[in-house]
Design brief:
21 helices, about 525 residues, Rossmann fold, about 10% strand, four-stranded antiparallel β-sheet, disordered N terminus, six-stranded mixed β-sheet, single chain, 4 domains, alpha/beta, Arc Repressor Mutant, subunit A
Length: about 525
């Protein structure tokens, strides 16, 4: 009752001109009191969401970039872009049908536009929003500024696979270059005039319910009633030749698989090229393995080192600040060593190349050998947090593991080099956990690309990348092991220290060859 009286009093003040109101369809907004009303009822808009509404209103119909929103809403904090989607989704939900006035402009930002039934949307005393809106366009592909090296044949394999099957997933460990390969393959298909390309990264999507909204945004579809969003999206792709590049799916596997199947069912001409550290397991999915780049052998000559794809990639990243890194012969050996220690992972090579500018090759090689996780930092500021450091990349993979998978990973890290499954089952045995459950945990690590399987003769080989093994051995803040007491955890730390010494002295195996393709 008291709240109703206060609302009436407030609206009386508005009527007498004490407060000015902005109009968005049926919604009245007061920036002075930070309140919004529909039909006399106060809307429950959170502080962050209202901050977003405020900056959009103040822009008077002009586009507000994501950076401008983040600077206004979180002026003293560094936050992930996904927070915009969270609060914007909440704001649109509170506004109901008027939420359609918040228009997404792909690759640029957001703005307020008039609704179809209200040409005076949020007009102020001095200005009004233009009534025109840009034509619908897909989210374009990101620009890659470095060449794709050592994977030329894979582009042909991927584009060929997309002719035969509606869904191809590029599967590989974190930092292997899946996104770059997907972008190049998509560009190849577009250049041949085969398809329109739409890019959707799930990296900033933090909640499952945001996936559909993110897809609508990528396809240039304005949000409205959530019950009608999926039909609108399916209608937009029907009978069109479209390639959707669905990037960074591993934390939203179920939602990505469901979206993929619905889109493919809606259009026989639509293709999906996904990237993930784990298979989507969607209908008609074909997997393409993206291996780390090949690394030079320990005894490789300078000519062999310089011809190695991982070394060529390292030099391509370093070309932004130097062109004479290989003039000194000893640098060639050190570059080969760094590429070998980093398993030929393009993300790690990019981080290392940027640090070489700071340390020089001799010191960089020493730093990487001593502690690659402390050394490989300072990635692109615009990259997701997990792609700015080697540690962040592996932390992301580790967080996606189940409890038993983490326990087994720590145990398998004690094995140096390649091993067979029966040996892994013995080493990874856990008290009060069945052998079958341990085997399932190993299978889970393989499916998540933290343990790599290579076909052998009678038995397949398994191994951990050197960076993964070092990470597992060094991780001290691990969860307690199942059935393990304090004494055993103390012994583990002692063995981990010994294992790290062995890891540095052991030979690094060359990365697997070209991508392999098979049906899921």
């Amino acid at each position: 009752m008291l709240m109703s009286l206060l609302q009436v009093a407030f609206l009386d003040q508005v009527a007498w001109g004490v407060f000015s109101m902005e109009k968005i369809g049926r919604t009245s907004v007061s920036l002075e009191t930070r309140e919004a009303f529909q039909n006399g009822h106060r809307l429950r808009i959170g502080a962050r969401a209202f901050d977003m509404l405020e900056v959009l209103i103040q822009a008077r119909g002009k586009i507000v970039t994501k950076n401008q929103i983040m600077s206004h809403v979180w002026p003293d904090l560094v936050v992930e872009e996904g927070n915009i989607h969270v609060h914007l989704s909440a704001l649109r939900k509170q506004l109901g049908a008027d939420g359609r006035a918040i228009q997404t402009v792909p690759r640029r930002g957001y703005r307020l536009v008039p609704l179809d039934d209200d040409t005076s949307v949020h007009q102020s005393k001095n200005s009004a929003i233009p009534s025109t809106s840009p034509s619908i366009e897909f989210e374009p592909l990101p620009i890659c500024y470095t060449p794709l090296i050592g994977r030329e044949n894979e582009i042909g394999e991927i584009t060929s696979a997309l002719q035969d099957t509606p869904v191809v997933t590029l599967l590989g460990p974190g930092g292997a270059g899946k996104t770059h390969l997907a972008i190049e393959a998509a560009q190849s298909m577009r250049a041949n005039g085969r398809v329109d390309v739409c890019f959707l990264s799930l990296a900033p999507v933090l909640r499952r319910e945001q996936v559909l909204n993110a897809a609508a945004e990528a396809f240039g579809i304005e949000p409205f009633d959530e019950l009608l969003l999926l039909p609108k999206l399916l209608g937009a792709v029907a009978d069109r030749r479209i390639l959707l590049v669905l990037d960074n799916c591993e934390h939203m596997l179920e939602e990505a698989a469901r979206l993929t199947e619905r889109l493919v069912q809606a259009s026989a001409n639509l293709r999906v090229l996904a990237t993930s550290r784990e298979a989507l397991r969607s209908r008609n999915e074909t997997l393409h393995w993206v291996a780390p780049l090949a690394t030079p052998g320990v005894d490789a000559t300078h000519r062999e080192i310089l011809a190695c794809p991982s070394v060529e990639t390292f030099l391509a990243f370093a070309a932004s600040w130097t062109s004479d890194l290989t003039k000194e012969p000893e640098n060639v050996d050190m570059i080969g060593s760094v590429c070998r220690q980093l398993d030929g992972l393009p993300l790690a090579l990019e981080l290392a190349a940027s640090r070489a500018r700071v340390f020089g090759m001799r010191q960089l090689a020493c730093e990487v050998a001593d502690d690659p996780f402390r050394t490989l930092i300072g990635g692109r500021r615009t990259a997701p947090a997990r792609q700015r450091t080697l540690l962040g990349m592996l932390d992301w993979s580790y967080q996606l593991l189940g409890e038993l998978e983490r326990v087994v990973l720590h145990k398998l890290a004690k094995i140096s080099g390649h091993f067979h499954l029966d040996h892994a089952q013995t080493v990874a045995a856990v008290d009060r956990v069945s052998k079958g459950d341990v085997t399932e945990a190993i299978a889970g690590l393989v499916s998540k690309c933290l343990v790599i399987r290579t076909p052998g003769g009678e038995k397949d080989d398994y191994y951990l990348l050197g960076t993964t093994r070092e990470y597992a051995l060094r991780k001290l803040d691990r969860p307690p092991k199942i059935g393990e007491g304090p004494l055993e955890r103390t012994r583990h730390r002692d063995r981990s220290a010994e294992g790290r010494s062995t890891a540095r002295a052991s030979t690094h195996f060359a990365s697997p060859g070209n991508g392999r393709r098979h049906r899921a």
